[in-house]
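User: Hey, quick favor. My workstation is busy. Could you predict this chain's structure for me?
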Amino acid sequence: MSQRHVVQVFEQYQKARMQFVQTVADLANRPQNIELLQNAGVLSLLRPLMLDVVPSIQHTAALALGRLADNSEDLAEAVVKEDILPQLAHSLASQNRFYKKAAAFVLRAVAKHSPELSQAVVACRGVDALVLCLEEFDPGVKEAAAWALGNIARHNAALSQSVVDAGAVPLLVLSLLEPEMALKRIAASTLSDISKHTPELAQTVVDTGAIAHLAQMILSPDTKLKRQVFAALTQISKHSVSLAEMVIEAEIFPAAMSCLRDPDEYVKKNVVTLMREVVKHTPELAQVIVNCGGLEAVIDYLGNCHGNVRLPGIMMLGYVAAHSESLAMAVIVSKGVPQLALCLSEESEDHIKAATVWSVGQIGHHTPEHAKAVATANLLPKILELYMNARSSEDLQTKSKKALKSVLQKCTYLPSLEPLLYEAPSNILKHVVCQFSKVLPHDSKARRLFVTSGGLKKVQEIEAEPGSPLQEYINAINGCFPEEIVRYYSPGYSEALLERLDDYQPA
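Assistant: No problem, here it is.
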């Protein structure tokens, strides 16, 4: 056999290997092919090719492996069982940038599926290898490594801590300063995934100066970057007063509110979610957001969206109102109650209705004036209907009951209470009747109206246990009227009059 012939054989073998890994990589891009490739035992064929002498074959084999693991949790588990991860982690330090990107993609694809698979990446020192990649010159390698670290950190606090312990956070913050937009986005996303689990992890991110760098990007022209920046600031803010204060001190408000006019739905949602997480902590933080026009901006936002993106805005109003009478009144003055009434009538999902009902309760439970704002928006019958509807979820029924009770206990606006006399079950009815028993003794005009509207007649028809609070409230109401009027509207009175007529003998 001539030397030339030997060279041709090796060239053909190399070409065949390259064609094989390229074809598998292309096939693995389509989910419908995954099961066929799995059944063909493709993993055991790819593994030796990852150690091939030809670099392009190595990184294409890794790319194919990543696509397989990305599309199928079973194949991701098979990658772990085939003991491929240690080989990948080890070679990340020495191979070229194309291989590093492909290898980081495999680790990311395995880690995304579950905490257990992420732990397998940690166990083979994959996190340390990925952190080393964050120091690479090539931005594509940094991006691939940051993405893989984010997929590991997002599952739970322990995995997130392993990413922190490997020294990833300072390098991720430095990545925010790189000119490449894709790297900025994924660095912000990974910092968000690290921050979300515990106050301690969020504090670690803050201690590296992340807030100042994130704050500088809130008005970026890049939509996807803004989404990630606001998500990261939200995950930091949610844990504690001190962390929320640090976000506020970065002076992102009121500038962030201009993003509520952004054409992207998720940018707007993330801004409102950040506002919700800030205002929930203290009256002082809520007041900061109110002072820079936050209520009007969120109420306007609620009027221009539907479905789940409304949820953070609805809850933000509730958190603000919960803190104090003055903040609840600020929500009322900003026309928050009619907007919540609109949300309640427009939304079909029970969890959105439950959040709306909760927020209404937070607004109306402070004083009679607050309760009147809720009552005059015709919200009490709507909430009662949700409470009594057998198709309402348990959470919606519970929140409706609680909101009704808390608002009713403050409501002295009788025209809105009277319809409930006819519809409310006994456990709600007692709160309605109680309010009448408080107001009627001191308001002669209301007493007259109560008789002419049929309210007094309805009260006489209520069946209450002798000695019960409900019976005591009825007695208190009856005590506001002459005995003959009470008798006149009592059930059976007309029959008694007719009996007297039968016995009556004209003079």
